[in-house]
Design a protein that fits this description.
By secondary structure, this protein is mostly helical. The chain has 10 helices and no strands. It is globular. The termini are far apart.
């Protein structure tokens, strides 16, 4: 097995560590896969347990996307492999091997991947999320807009098609995981940030 294959596997395993499920278990809260919105992510932990636990969950999800990219940079991997490693970490969050493949929607992990891939891309993505969230108060809408623009940022920074394509796959998967949110947004029924 090559170094690249090992890094992809490590990225998937790191992505499979569900911060939301672990935080809720330690705090004695309901499993986020069955409580609240049913999504094991920071927004649902906010609903179930409050801001402090949501922040811990968010940091954990960001870190498991960021860490594989930092490891990949340390090994000096090529941009096309960098994108694949980031995609593996994101896929691990969506389908975690440690939690019966029942994962979250991947927003924080995707942002961690993008920050680790290139700090300018990460800053642009986070900035977009914050602006849309401040204006709309919808976490899902902020995620869709921010990650929808991310492949263009990656293409601009790297110039090649491979990392932008990997980012595009993340975006498509993220939109697919947000189908219910998109329907609620269109119907005016999506809960806003902090709303129970």
């Amino acid at each position: 097995m090559s170094t690249g294959h090992i890094l992809v596997l490590v990225a998937y395993l790191l992505g499979s560590v569900s911060s939301a499920i672990i935080v809720c278990r330690l705090a004695g809260l309901p499993d986020p896969r069955s409580g609240g919105s049913g999504n094991p992510g920071a927004t649902n932990v906010l609903r179930l347990g409050g801001k402090k636990l949501a922040v811990v969950t968010l940091v954990g999800d960001l870190f498991k996307g960021l860490l594989p990219m930092l490891i990949a940079h340390a090994f000096g991997v090529a941009p096309e492999l960098l994108g694949l490693i980031g995609l593996a970490a994101f896929f691990g969050h969506l389908y975690p091997v440690f939690f019966r493949f029942q994962g979250g929607k991947g927003v924080a992990t995707a942002i961690g991947v993008l920050v680790g891939m290139d700090w300018v891309v990460g800053l642009a993505t986070v900035g977009t999320w914050l602006v849309v969230a401040a204006l709309s108060r919808y976490s899902s809408l902020s995620a869709l807009v921010a990650t929808g623009l991310a492949p263009a940022w990656v293409a601009w920074r790297f110039g090649g098609i491979e990392p932008a394509l990997a980012c595009g796959v993340m975006t498509v998967l993220l939109f697919w995981r947000h189908q219910a949110n998109i329907r609620r947004l269109l119907a005016g029924e999506e809960p806003k940030i902090g709303q129970k």
